[in-house]
């Protein structure tokens, strides 16, 4: 079967195109993208499509790029296909966003392709990934550690992106180009073994082929099977989430964790990954982070939380697991002139201050309730967030401690520290609200009058 027929079969198998589609082809000048462009041009009338091509310059190979652009432009001219070139600054983007060059190049490339497609009025973007790329991707993800989604490889269709060569091997592409006497350009970076994909391509794949098996076909078929199974599991996740979501915003998801505890572990991991993706995204999220979330659900106490890559936080409530990428707002400074109620809106709490007869037995401290010697406090009291140099005398500790050191010892997440309210009297920290009070202000045997402070939810 020739290349054109293979491409036609793949397009039909995955319903990649509809009559009248405008298709943008990502053209690098390499054998795969050249083959893709030529094959689609030969199928243009068959599918009733319009073609456009774009070259994306990543700014990484300035000595080679100009020649590649000229080659691509001439090829498109010979095929009567409109051509354009886009430039992106991978190095600056990688530095600004703390990404590897490969991650930055991928993100910028897809952004550039989307922009070029919009400019051309193209609803589909065709990329030249091959069966070899599919096999290499599966092996790479297997080595790095992946579930069925990762091992399902490169999707033939993802939203408006199509890959008509995904069922075609590279050796067939090279044979086609040689037979048809169609030129192409080799990217010098493809020869470098510093990238894992190239190591797999140059070392692992030849070794597999030496086993006298059709490794590429077998691995690609396995990826197809895993993709179908993954789609089924994702459908089950969607059904489960409908029963588990308590509240959802653009950056926060609340899951009812009691039914989650009874859900099959295979689904729980997927549900949590979906929830993390809804909150911010999955970059940097690994197996260990999902396991930490499961551990938080099973063993954590209400109020326990963990921080994950990308600024995502997971907080265990009394009945829900809150997954959010919102950063807590720093507190304003509040003034309490006399006993009464003080609303602290950023913390969604009301601080209730009431006189207390110290002759009545009462707990001296709990995370949300504290009792102080009224004679030691001086109104007006203030509530504020932390400042550089803050310190206090932790109750039961017996000596002075920097607030920063206390937060570190208590494992208070860094992004939470500015949002923790501090009760202040005469510039002294009297109480780290929700955590610990100051030893100097506790009631003792000489106390005549007490003041009780209690935290209540602003919603109640």
Textual characterization of the structure:
By secondary structure, the chain is an alpha+beta fold. It has 3 domains: 3-225, Rossmann fold (3-Layer(aba) Sandwich); 249-324, Uridine Diphospho-n-acetylenolpyruvylglucosamine Reductase, domain 3 (2-Layer Sandwich); 334-457, Phenylalanyl-tRNA Synthetase, Chain B, domain 3. The chain has helices at 3-13, 31-42, 44-47, 65-79, 90-97, 101-120, 131-144, 148-151, 170-180, 196-209, 215-244, 257-261, 265-279, 287-299, 403-409, and strands spanning 22-26, 50-57, 83-87, 124-126, 157-158, 161-162, 245-248, 252-256, 305-308, 312-316, 320-324, 334-336, 340-344, 349-356, 365-366, 369-373, 381-384, 391-392, 401-402, 422-425, 428-432, 436-437, 450-457. The strands form 5 sheets. The protein has a 6-stranded mixed sheet, sandwiched between helices. A 5-stranded antiparallel sheet has the order 7-8-11-10-9. β15 and β16 form a beta hairpin. It is elongated. The protein starts with a helix and ends with a strand. The mean pLDDT is 87.
Query: In percent, how helical is the residue content?
Result: 25-40%
Report mean pLDDT, rounded to a whole number: 87
CATH superfamily of the largest domain: HUPs
**Unreliable stretches, pLDDT < 50, 5 or more residues?**
none
Taking all Cα atoms into account, the compactness measure Rg is 31 Å
What is the name of the CATH class of the largest domain?
Answer: Alpha Beta
Strand proportion: 15-25%
Strand order within the widest beta sheet: 3-2-1-4-6-5
CATH fold description of the largest domain: Rossmann fold
Number of helices: 15
- Please give the alpha-carbon distance between the first and last residues: 71 Å
Number of domains: 3
What would you call the shape?
Answer: elongated
- Tell me the CATH architecture of the largest domain: 3-Layer(aba) Sandwich
Estimated structural class: alpha+beta
Number of strands: 23
